[in-house]
Amino acid sequence: MTERMLVGLGERSYQIWIGENTFPAIGSALDEVNFPNKVAIVTNPSIGELYCDQLIDALVLSGRQVSVIQVPDGEEYKTVATLESIYDVLIDRKFDRYCGLIALGGGVIGDITGFAAATFLRGIPFVQVPTSLLAQVDSSIGGKTGVNHPQGKNLIGAFYQPQHVHIDVNVLATLPQREYASGLAEVIKYGIISDREFFRWLEEHRDRLADRSAEALVHAVMRSCQIKANVVENDEKEQGLRILLNLGHTFGHAVETLAGYGVIKHGEAVSIGMVMAARTALRLDLCSIEDVDRIVALLTYFDLPVTPPDFSVADYLGVMQRDKKVKDGAVRLVLNHGIGSAELHQVKDLEKYLDELLT
User: Is residue 242 flagged as an active site residue?
Assistant: First the structure.
């Protein structure tokens, strides 16, 4: 059975389909939104080998003309150079404004395909078919697209919503363990910032999630998507509420940048960042030691890292001061209030807190 939910954004609204073995239904989903007949699937070699043929078959059955564009696999290739290589193929194959892109892959593929769609010929439609857990519950929803810059993650991009998000939890069976655990970090994040009962459900069903039970995954993905959709509907372009989705990300992006893109996976960096945020919240009396211990215990159950890598306070500060949430030169952090709530805080004396967190 395929579940459906709506991301309500007026004329930019779109549906998310979630279930098992959903690929055969993608033609029908695209027909519902009048998606173009000439499409290009953007993917990487490893994902393409596993799932591209299934997707092509379903698209051809719906009467579509399908091209495939392969880009290298990995965060280190989420660059302007890779973006230009997509443009080159689209131009060479005579794509026009009446064509569309389909992102088949994880967060890197989704982000770069979305940005290509946002900027090619000033905008063509695209669809997200996320194949990693992290992409299914986070990056495929909400319209954040972009590429990295050597001085920071996602510094070049645009808000550009997909026309449809098509999620099949069965693809998670082939996901490498580190990638799967990275996605669970984002799932856990939703419980911390918005839903104490969902966090408790994750604690109670952690064995089933570790075993990749399809039933448990459908529930976890559905609830995560619903929380994110609710936030995006109220703050599409991150002017207020949506910034709470960045719990752990200011610290986490610093970890990713300092370690080098691809060395520490995004979800692993977010896991470290959420623990750093929780420990900062503890020092500010925003949560209890019991809250911190529960967060650490759930993350470590899935073998996620919780200790920041060994870089200097000055290194961390240098990267964090380039974060998109910096305002008037001040670093602002999303911090949890217990479990189930979070707020944005301007943290004074961040250097002092970092010194404590890194020792």
Answer: yes
